[in-house]
Write a structure and sequence with these properties.
single chain; Cytochrome Bc1 Complex, Chain D, domain 2; 2 strands; 49% helix; elongated
Length: 220
């Protein structure tokens, strides 16, 4: 075995030096790299908000300034005369609409319309319901207070106002639905009261306080 000293290999030394340099540079880069943070940076969120606002604004602009554009104009099969003849306006069922509104009244008059003895009068067969349209609409508009006789039975409750300015401020349409409903439910067989009729009575009605039975009886 030779006792001659091992000569260093220049290529190995050069490779080691290169590795050491790479490690130093990598350590510097690691030190300069910012610490990772949770969440989102503000700039992407601001940019996202700006793009969203632009899309929303452009949509509103197109809707308001579309110049009456309709895709049907460019449909070669579209015939305005035929379309007008086939278009049907769906008729509103006042009784069905009134049944939904009657949930407000059912707490006093009961779901079956029989009322509460001595307090809230019945709607079934009531002369106040199936009789004068003027009286019934005015009761709905202004309310009713004090003693009341229905089918020779005495009641003494308070009916709130449902017309404009009252506790509920129902429209003419809503009042027409509810009065038509109670005039045609539970075996009652009275005619429909339209929204136009309600409006007519409301316009000539100057009262702002609830009616009494005696005052209503003077109205034909």
């Amino acid at each position: 075995m030779s006792d001659e000293p091992i000569k260093p290999n220049p290529q190995i030394e050069q490779a080691a030096a290169s590795d050491e340099s790479i490690q130093r540079v990598h350590a510097i880069l690691l030190r300069e790299k910012p610490e990772p943070k949770e969440g989102y940076t503000p700039m992407p969120l601001l940019l996202l908000g700006f793009i969203t606002a632009m899309i929303f604004g452009c949509t509103l602009y197109f809707v308001h300034y579309r110049g009456g554009f309709s895709p049907l104009v460019y449909d070669e099969r579209y015939d305005p005369s035929t379309a007008a003849a086939t278009t049907q306006v769906e008729k509103v069922d006042p009784v069905a609409q009134g049944k939904r509104l009657f949930q407000t009244c059912a707490a006093c008059h009961q779901a079956t319309g029989v009322g509460v003895p001595g307090v809230y009068p019945p709607l079934v067969g009531s002369e106040w319901v199936v009789g004068s349209e003027e009286r019934l609409v005015r009761i709905m508009l202004n309310g009713l207070g004090g003693p009341l006789k229905v089918e020779d039975k005495d009641y003494n409750g308070n009916m709130p106002a449902f017309g404009p300015g009252g506790g509920y401020s129902w429209s003419d349409e809503k009042i027409s639905y509810i009065v038509t409903c109670i005039r045609q439910e539970w075996g009652n067989k009275a005619g429909e009261i339209t929204a136009e009729k309600v409006k007519e009575i409301r316009e000539k009605n100057t009262r702002t306080t609830p009616w009494s039975a005696s005052e209503l009886e003077a109205i034909k």
